[in-house]
Write a structure and sequence with these properties.
By secondary structure, this protein is mostly beta strands. 15% of the residues lie in helices and 43% in strands. Strand 18 and strand 19 (323-328) form a beta hairpin.
Length: 375
């Protein structure tokens, strides 16, 4: 038990870049993006602003064409938006807002405007994707019948269309529903006859032990590995094998939530020896699953989907030749990419991770851990 790391989500900055994206534009042209709180004109639809913003952000995450800087991880910026007039373009951002966006690694912002056309019987939702320098990357809109503005299913469908229109600017035209149900499947890594592979296992059946960290603790209890986070908007990651020199990793474990966890799962390619960066597979109690990249202790989503929990779920995350493969209960659910050339020439780590949002303390447990690495 040699290394653990914990963090306060609200107190640190730096969301990562998407290491690789769907075919189309180069990675550099797919900037990490923050979805600004949509403005609204018309008293009857102002109450929909928060909801529509969240629905569009979720649709854009599912579409997978851009790395999204999650709004819930930047409460300071969200509070600014609720206190000030709604902003409709990058040129209206204050120096303080630009600073918060820059420190969170957001290079672009989606601005939305909801307009209530009472005479026409429609609600128009327009979005513009702009870089912080003001360059417009996408500009599109959809319309919803006023009679269906409170219909959540109709709004979800329209937000999916809107997200697909934004993605089309980056060479991706697949609908959000297709993206979530059938994620892109890059070719499987080809076997390498020259590789030598090793497998390590741990069932945590040894002596019960417990260590305290700054935001919780970790240890072996009741023949399982337990992670505890005692603070809200925090995280705990525990490195089980911290210094493995190999280009290919495959880590698996049975995982389940004890209480209050926002996400829990596995992480891989931990570069803590040189910088605070790693990749993870995380699940949520609502049935969501995602592959993430962490940079300076904040996450950007590379791929997301859904899964059906069995209570205790077998999670598997593989990294090989630039491809991350996520599986739950033996079924591959999604893939994402990373740049293997960007990995530092140092031993890498793998382990378990848990995060919290508004509820704490939170606990998750892990069992039947297995790591395979090949050189």
């Amino acid at each position: 038990m040699s290394q653990t790391q914990s963090w306060r989500i609200a107190a640190v900055a730096g969301l990562g870049l998407l290491a690789g994206a769907a075919a189309g534009r180069a990675v550099e042209e797919r900037p990490p993006t923050y979805v600004w709180l949509f403005s609204a004109t018309g008293a009857e639809i102002e109450s929909l602003s928060d909801t529509v913003t969240e629905e569009f952000e979720e649709a854009l995450v599912k579409a997978g064409c851009l790395p999204i800087v999650q709004r819930r991880n930047l409460p300071e910026l969200q509070s600014h938006q609720k206190q000030e007039e709604r902003i409709e373009g990058a040129d209206s951002l204050s120096p303080g807002q630009r600073r918060l966006l820059s420190t969170s690694s957001a290079n672009a912002v989606v601005f939305g405007k909801i307009t209530d056309d009472i005479q026409g019987g429609q609600v128009k939702i327009a979005v513009t994707l702009e870089t912080l320098s003001g360059a417009i990357l996408a500009n599109t809109s959809v319309r919803i019948s006023r009679g269906k503005r409170l219909d959540a299913d109709e709004r979800e469908r329209r937000m999916a269309e809107l997200a697909s229109e934004v993605c089309s600017a980056f060479g991706s035209t697949k609908s959000v529903f297709e993206a979530s149900e059938h994620p892109p499947q890059p070719p499987s890594p080809q076997p390498n006859a020259n590789r030598t592979c090793s497998t390590l296992r741990d069932e945590f059946n040894g002596e019960q032990k417990w260590w305290v960290s700054t935001t919780g603790g970790f240890g072996i209890q009741d023949s399982a590995f337990k992670l505890l986070v005692s603070q809200t908007r925090s995280g705990e990651k525990r490195c089980l094998h911290c210094n493995v020199s190999a280009p290919m990793f495959r880590v698996s474990a049975t995982a389940w939530e004890e209480r209050n966890a926002a996400t829990w799962g596995l992480y891989i390619l931990d570069m803590s020896g040189t910088r605070d960066e790693w990749f993870s597979l995380e699940v949520e109690r609502e049935g969501r699953v995602s592959i993430k990249r962490y940079w300076n202790y904040q996450a950007s989503i590379l791929w997301s989907g859904t899964y059906r929990s069995q209570g205790k779920d077998r999670l598997t995350l593989e990294a090989d030749e630039g491809t991350l493969i996520a599986s739950v209960n033996g079924t591959e659910l999604g893939r994402a990419t990373y740049d293997p050339k960007s990995l530092p020439n140092v031993p890498l780590g793998v382990g378990f991770i848990i995060t919290t949002t508004a509820e704490a303390p939170a606990e998750a447990r892990f069992d039947d851990y297995e790591l395979t690495f090949c050189r």
